[in-house]
Structure formats: structure tokens, C-alpha cells
Design brief:
Radius of gyration: 22 Å
Shape: globular
Number of helices: 23
Strand content: under 5%
Helix content: over 70%
Structural class: mainly alpha
Distance between the termini: 43 Å
Order of helices and strands: HHHHHHHHHHHHHHHHHHHHHHH
Number of domains: 1
């Protein structure tokens, strides 16, 4: 009965505050504090838990990757990647739309953020698509949907948060007896595992883009491919192409950790922006630092309160209760995957991605581990599913960004984005039901 009251207080106060319009960090913090007071805990413990939540070494990668992405945009690296992707459009039906998806993949490999990817690519590609005769709503919807790749293609900020959330995970004793001791999730392994799932979702968007463009009559360029243009774009963007190769190559080879790779990315960008492209000046560097401070502060506020919320869940065995309840309904792996994916899709529509990961990882990971699902596989499926929430209402951050760039109504973008959300969901089911898509590369690299 005590557990029942605790669950009502914890989730009831959280949902109640969210309905009233309170910020997610406030809702999480007040819900956790209410539970602490109900349990008779010293409120000082809340502050201690919040403080220690930012003491992990992997978390240092968070502001570093945010700064690296901001600097790359200011230095002209992201612009050259987009131009390179556009040069491959050619005469293919929907080619410029396909180039938009490719540009989001490129920028996702240096950004790690969905809205940042949508903004950086959308500023260039949405006007380019409109100029080629694309409907503004369709161009914005495609960019918003492909922007979700920013958190799937490594490096990814949500992958870092998932790895931190899985630290000290509590799993049912029966699961440990059956599958062995739970291993801490490696962020490097998460980065490697995200490559093929990112490609699967990208391919689903490319296929639907081709079908829809063919129906709408969105043709490619009449003059065909220009090898001169492609060669010029590759030559101009050589140092931009090298950026994700340096970052990911260093991680995959084991030469440096994800946290160290973020620092390498910053210094690489400074060198390229100042000495090669010569587009990076003090004003742009200061603006990038301001952007990093604002985004990192916002993320850390959520991280503080979500960590406390998660600690209450774990210490009171609520994940074990949820796991037992789900497994009592069915032990069919495919049905449980379907329930988890549909639940995450629903959550992603209303909750910020990082908060959802921090709250739900302690609840859902023990369930999947009890079924023998690899924690890395679960983490990738979770992030892929939540990425769809960037382009689904009512939260849909990417939708707001794309609608703002194209200066059209949110409803117009949303209507065009729903088919892309549907095919992305089908892709997530494929990733979930075929774990080798996720786990092949980590095994290949010996993780």
C-alpha cells in the first residue's frame, strides 16, 4: 500500500504540474521533493543527489559537444556539408529532398541535437527546396523529420544521457540469475551501435520522400549531375567532411573516449574556422559560448531534477514492480517491444527527450533486461523512438523550428510530417525486432 501511495504522489504531482503548464524541471523537482517528504527523508539529500548527478566524467561531453556543434555552424563547416549534400541531388526525382536527409545525417554526425540539426540544415535547404518548386509545408516537414537523425547518428547527446542514466541500474534478482550481472552501458558502444539504425531510419525517409515527390511531380535538375559542381563542393568541403571522420574515427578506433573526442572536435573546429576557412572570429566564438551556456544550463536543470526523480524510483523498487506487472501480462518478446515502442511514442509527443530518458530508463531497462534484451539495443531503440517525437505534435520542437524558418503555420507543417513519422515508426520496429542491426558493429569492433 505504501508503494501505491508513493507512486500516486510521485507521478500524480508530476503530471498535475505538467498539465498546469509548469516547466519540466520544476515538475520533476517538486514531484521528487513531495516523495521525499512523504518518505520522511531529509530534503538535504535531494540537493546532494542533484549535485552528484553532474560529477560523472562522461557528462563532460555534453557541453563540449554542444559547443563543438555551435562552433562548426559559426565556422562554416555545417554550411559546406549542406552544399555538398545538395550537389548530389542531380536529376533524381525528389533529389533535393534526398539531399536534405543526407545533410541532416552529416550535421547529425557533428551536432548531437535534433533542433540544432533542423535549424542548421533548414536555413539552407528549405529555401532551396521552395526555389525548386517544393511546397513550403512539405519542405519544412521533411527537414523537421530528418532533423531527428541528429540524436541517432553519433555522437549523440541523448546517448550520453542514457549511459549516465543506466549507471547503478537495479534489476530483478531473477534476471541476474538468468542473464548474469548487469553491465554498465558504454557510451562508446552506444555511439558505434547507432550507425546502422540511423541509416535504417534515413533510408525509410528517403524512400517515402521519393514516393511522395513522384506523386507531386517534384523533379530533379534538368541539366543532370554536374561532376564539376560535385568536385568543387567536395574540394571546398574537404575539411568539413573530415570533421565527423576525426570525431567518430577516434572513438571507434579507441584512440580517445567520447568525452575526449568532444574536446578534439572543439580544437579541430577552432583550427579550421580560424586558419583555413577564416570565418570564425571573436564575435562568433562568444555567440557560440552563449548558445552553449544557455543550452547546457537548460539540459543540466532537467538532469538535476530527473536524477532525483529516478533515484526515488530505484530506491523504492518501483522499476521492479513495473517489470513484474508487464511480464505478468505477457512474456512474448515482440508484444513487449510493441508496448514499449508505442508507449515511448506517446511520451515523446508530450515530454522533452532528455527528461524522458532520465525518467524512463530506470523503469523500462529492467523489464527488457529480464527478457534478455541487450541494454545497448534497448537504448538505441529508445532513442530512435523518442527522436520521432521531435516531429510530432504537440511538443514537436523540430516542427516549431521548421515552421519558423519557412514562416508558415504549425498545422501546415504537422499535416505533412505525419507520414514521415509513420515510416520512421515502422523503421523503429524493424530495428527492435532485428537486434543485429544495432549490435553488429559493436561486435565487429570488439565491444
Amino acid at each position: 500500500m505504501n508503494d501505491t501511495y508513493l507512486i500516486i504522489i510521485l507521478f500524480g504531482s508530476f503530471l498535475g504540474l505538467m498539465i498546469m503548464g509548469a516547466p519540466i524541471s520544476v515538475s520533476l523537482g517538486v514531484a521528487a521533493l513531495s516523495s521525499f517528504l512523504y518518505l520522511g527523508e531529509n530534503p538535504i539529500k535531494l540537493v546532494q543527489v542533484a549535485f552528484t548527478s553532474v560529477g560523472s566524467f562522461p557528462l563532460m561531453a555534453l557541453p563540449a559537444f554542444v559547443l563543438a556543434g555551435a562552433l562548426m555552424e559559426a565556422a562554416g563547416i555545417s554550411k559546406r556539408l549542406v552544399v555538398l549534400a545538395e550537389s548530389f541531388a542531380g536529376p533524381v526525382t525528389g533529389g533535393i529532398g534526398a539531399a536534405t536527409v543526407l545533410a541532416c545525417m552529416f550535421f547529425g554526425a557533428i551536432s548531437g541535437s535534433g533542433p540544432a540539426t533542423t535549424a542548421a540544415v533548414g536555413m539552407l535547404m528549405i529555401p532551396a527546396m521552395v526555389k525548386r518548386g517544393y511546397d513550403k509545408g512539405y519542405a519544412s516537414a521533411l527537414t523537421a523529420s530528418a532533423g531527428g537523425l541528429g540524436i541517432i547518428i553519433p555522437p549523440s547527446i541523448p546517448m550520453v544521457i542514457f549511459g549516465i542514466s543506466a549507471i547503478g541500474m537495479s534489476v530483478p534478482r531473477e534476471a541476474i540469475e538468468m542473464h548474469g550481472q548487469f553491465q554498465t552501458v558504454s557510451i562508446s558502444k552506444m555511439f558505434i551501435a547507432g550507425v546502422f539504425p540511423g541509416l535504417v531510419i534515413s533510408c525509410s525517409l528517403l524512400i517515402l520522400n521519393y514516393i511522395r515527390c513522384r506523386r507531386r511531380g517534384y523533379q530533379g535538375t534538368a541539366e543532370g549531375w554536374s561532376f564539376g559542381t560535385i568536385l568543387h563542393a567536395m574540394r571546398s568541403g574537404f575539411w568539413s567532411i573530415l570533421a565527423p571522420l576525426v570525431i567518430l574515427g577516434g572513438i571507434y578506433s579507441g584512440f580517445f573516449t567520447p568525452t575526449e573526442s568532444a574536446i578534439v572536435a572543439i580544437f579541430y573546429t577552432l583550427f579550421v574556422g580560424v586558419f583555413i576557412y577564416k570565418e570564425l572570429n571573436w564575435e562568433k566564438i562568444v555567440n557560440s559560448l552563449e548558445t552553449t551556456t544557455w543550452l547546457t544550463g537548460r539540459i543540466l536543470m532537467i538532469l538535476f531534477t530527473a536524477t532525483i526523480f529516478g533515484r526515488v524510483l530505484v530506491e523504492n523498487q518501483i522499476p521492479a514492480i513495473v517489470a513484474e506487472s508487464m511480464l505478468s501480462m505477457t512474456s512474448n518478446l515482440y508484444l513487449i517491444w510493441a508496448m514499449i515502442i508505442l508507449f515511448l511514442l506517446f511520451v515523446g509527443m508530450f515530454m522533452e527527450t532528455l527528461a524522458a530518458i532520465m525518467i524512463l530508463t530506470p523503469v523500462l531497462l529492467p523489464v527488457t533486461y529480464s527478457l534478455g534484451i541487450d541494454p545497448i539495443h534497448f537504448g538505441i531503440v529508445m532513442i530512435c523512438t523518442l527522436s520521432i517525437g521531435f516531429a510530432t505534435p504537440p511538443l514537436g520542437e523540430n516542427l516549431f523550428v521548421a515552421a519558423g524558418i519557412s514562416d508558415i503555420s504549425l498545422e501546415r507543417v504537422t499535416n505533412q510530417a505525419l507520414p514521415f513519422a509513420f515510416v520512421s515508426t515502422l523503421a523503429v520496429f524493424i530495428i527492435a525486432y532485428f537486434p543485429e542491426i544495432t549490435l553488429f558493429l559493436p561486435r565487429f569492433f570488439g565491444y
